[in-house]
Amino acid sequence: MDAATGSTTQARAEEPGARSEPREWVWMLRVLAVVVIFAVVAVARSRQVDVPFRDPHGKLFTRKILSTAELLMLFVAIDIGFRWIRGRRQGSTLWRTVRARWTPYRIVMIAASLLAYQVVYLCYRNLKSWDVFRAPQDHMLQRWDTWLFLGHSPAVLLHDLLGRDLAARFLTHWYESFTTVVSLALVAAMAFTPTVRSAYVFVVSAMWAWIIGVGSYYLIPSLGPFHEAPGEFAGLTRTSIQTTQATYVEQRDHLLRHPHAHDAFAQISAFASLHCALTFLIFLMARYYGLRILSWAAAAFLAGTLVATVYLGWHFAVDDIAGIALAWVAVQLGKLTVLGSWRSRREPAPTP
Fold it and tell me: Which of 230, 247, 310, 333 fits 208 for a cystine, CB–CB 3.0-4.6 Å?
C-alpha cells in the first residue's frame, strides 16, 4: 500500500458517508454544544452588564481568523509537499496526494474547527473584559504567595537571583512570544494530525482552556502583582512590559468610567495564568501525540513562562499553579468531548 492509498483509506474511514452510523456524529454535536452554550453564557453576561460584544480593530475575530487561515494554508502546503515527496517512489502524483489527504470532509471539518475556536476566543475575550466590573482580590492572592514562600515575595526572590536588567529584557521577549507559540501549535495540530478527530482533541482542549480560564477570572478577580505591589517591580529595567501593563490599567479605568464608549475594552485579569495554562496544554498534547522532542521543547518553554509571569509581575505564583491545573482539566475535557473518554489511547504522531 503506497502513502497516497494509505491516506485515502484513513480519510475514507473517518469521512461520514451513506453508510456512516449516527454515533459517528455524536462527538461533533458535543463540540457544537460546547461552543453554543459558551456563546449563550457570553450573551447573557453582555446583557447583564449592558455592554455589547466588541472586537477592537478586528483583532479578536476578523483579522485573527484571517491570519490563522493564512498560516493554516502554509502548513497545509508543507503537509502536502512532504507527503508527495514520500509517495513519489510509489508513483503518487501531487494531485493524488492532495485528494487523498485533503478530502472535502477534512477541509470542511478543519475550517469548522477554526471557526469554532475563534468564536470561543471572541466570547472569552469579551467575558474577560467585563470581569473588570467585579472587585479585585489581589491582596488575598498576595497573602497566599507570601505564605507559600515563607514570608517572601517570589518576584523579589527572582529579581535577586536573576538580576534586574538582562533577565528583564530576555524574559520580556520570552513572555511576548506566547501568542506566536500558541498559534503555531494550534495550526500545526489542524494541518499535520493524522485524522480530523485527533486534530479536534487539541482544538477543543484549547477551547476548554479559554472557557475554564475566564471562569477562574470571575472566581477570583485580580489585576496582578505589578498593580498590587508596584514597588517590587520598580527596579526592573524598563521594557515594553511596563508600557503594556500601564495601557491595560488605563483600558480598565476607561471601561469602568465609560462602559458604553465604542473603544471601551479591558484586557487585564491574573487568576489563573492562561499563559501557563496554554503552554502546559501544548506540552500535554505533544505527549498525547507521541512527539517526544517537541514535548521537551514545550516543557522548556513552560519553565521559562513560569519564571517570566512572576518575574515581570503579571501573575502571582498561585496563578501559575492554578493555570497548570486548569490545563490538565481542559485536556481531559477535550478528550472527553471529542473521544468520549479521557482514557482513550494515544494518537499516532502527526507528521507532515
Answer: 333
Cell numbers 514520500: residue: 86
| Angstrom distances, CA of residue 254 to CA of 130, 188, 214, 257, 261 | 12, 38, 21, 5, 9
Q: Which three cell numbers stand for residue 179?
A: 501568542
Cα 77 from chain centroid (whole Å)? 24
Q: Is the dihedral of CA 328, 335, 182, 223 positive or negative?
A: negative
What are the grid coordinates assigned to 140, written together?
488575598
| Amino acid letter, residue 220 | I
Report yes or no on whether pTM surpasses 0.85: yes
In angstroms, rounded to a whole number, what is the distance separating the alpha carbons of residues 278 and 44?
A: 26
CB atoms within 10 A of CB 127: 24
Buried b / exposed e over 189-205, threshold 16 CB at 10 Å, is bbbbbbbbbbbbbbbbb
